[in-house]
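Appendix C reproduces, verbatim, an entry submitted by the partner laboratory led by Prof. M.T., so that reviewers can inspect both the input and the predicted structure.
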Amino acid sequence: MSRVTFEQLLEAGVHFGHLRRKWCPEMAPYIFSEKNGIHIIDLQKTIVKLEEAANALKQIAKSGKKILFVATKKQAKDIVSEKVKTINMPYVTERWPGGMLTNFPTIRKAVKKMAAIDRMMTDGTFDTLSKRERLQITRQRAKLEKNLGSIADLTRLPAALFVVDITKEHIAVKEARRLGIPVVAICDTNSNPNLVDFPIPANDDASKSIALITDVICQAVQEGLNERRLEKDSEQTEKKVKENKEPKKIKVVKTTEAIEEEVEVSNLSKLEEGAKKIPIKKKTIKEE
């Protein structure tokens, strides 16, 4: 059974594309028809592609890897940030920092700098600074929080990207392609679906359309996380059952008298062995 129905997509306005003069020829297989100079997207193909993308991201989440959500469009910012916070995944909704994937160590340094400022505020070193220095540091902290606060938990490169508009986020898509990171993206009629691994043909301008598709993707990721948690719990229970089934070895505590007896026996056996090794000289007739 599909995760979303045809009626839900129709109500959200997922089928509305761009003007005919703005279309991308590569999107032709996903276009149903044209009406009043606007392309209409085939929702049956949208359902199939959305299911494929959701299953792929579910498996990635099940393996314990991170998925980075990218949506810097005005109408997608708040929707994506709210929904992604529930599944505890990193996201970028302000400005895509250039080289975030290809120059990831430098981005990590900026995140560590933000953590260092937080430590300064807690351990009391912040109070020892002058008023001007404190103001500069707080401004720097606010700027870092705005751009990199949502990816503070991203300690390594993400396993996949979910992008809302690939024409706007073309830098993120290029970086992901260079590093071989799979990209799942909402592709409108003005974008090239061949640039991404899992294109979802849909309206990327309407907030309802973005909300519906992002919700389906987040639900799939949550399913993967739940399955991973259940597997871990089952493994732990199996280990406990095995430990309980194994017979426990009884430790025999010896008394001091028993230990002394063992020592004496061992000493006597050593003396006997030593005596056997000593050569005995036989007396000859001449010597007598």
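The chain has two domains: 6-101+157-235, 104-144. Additional entries are available on request from the coordinating office.
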